[in-house]
Amino acid sequence: MVDPSRFHWQATDWRTPDLASLIIYELNVYGFTEGDPDIPLEEQGKFAGIIRRIRAGYFERLGVNALELMPTSEAPSLQGPTTLGYDPCGFAAIERDFGTPDQFRELVDVAHQHGLAVLLDLVFNHTSNSFNPLWEIIDTGTPGGFYFSGSTPWGNRIATEREEVQNYLIDICKLLLTEYRVDGFRFDATHSGWMDHRFLQRL
């Protein structure tokens, strides 16, 4: 069980910078500190490694004011040098290979204390083929059931044209905004027909 009320936020007066003023640094949680001798081994490839670099002034020296984290949603694959998290299976769950939910909250909190907004890359157009708890959880007589509609080159296509599925994905965004205090999102492959554009407008 994850209880978001137990985390004590420090950056209580944080305000997200205006969109036009964001200078964004995109990073993969694993790859950002993998193999770095300045980062303790137990922190490499983790939220803790990013926190250490924030506190050391790494991003301040670069002159950026926003971090865009590549997918942090739970994925069935082991996160490592050949994976980027674009095979999600649990949108509301934080990738366990990166750390705990509270360690992710700490990352956001420390980032805000150092003047950094935090944006998340969300993959709402497809899911992993190898494992997904939503697969056939509601049987509709079609492959995958209620939450799915066909396929994409990367995995099962999410049925973003269905209002109830849209509600679920919007609730995921609300959860990330309220329980993790992230500042915004980047959505994967929005230019394509694999995501319903009316859903994006509603979101």
Primary descriptors:
203 residues, alpha/beta, 27% helix, globular, single chain
Distance between the termini: 28 Å
Strand-and-helix sequence, N→C?
Answer: EHHHEEEHEEEEHEH
Number of helices: 6
Give the biggest beta sheet: 4 strands, parallel
Rg, nearest Å:
17 Å
Number of strands: 9
The helix fraction, in percent, is 25-40%
Question: What shape does the CA trace take?
Answer: globular
Task: Report mean pLDDT, rounded to a whole number.
Answer: 93
Structural class: alpha/beta
Oligomer classification: single chain
Give the strand content: 15-25%
Residue stretches low in confidence (pLDDT < 50, at least 5 long) are none
Strand order across the largest sheet: 1-2-5-9
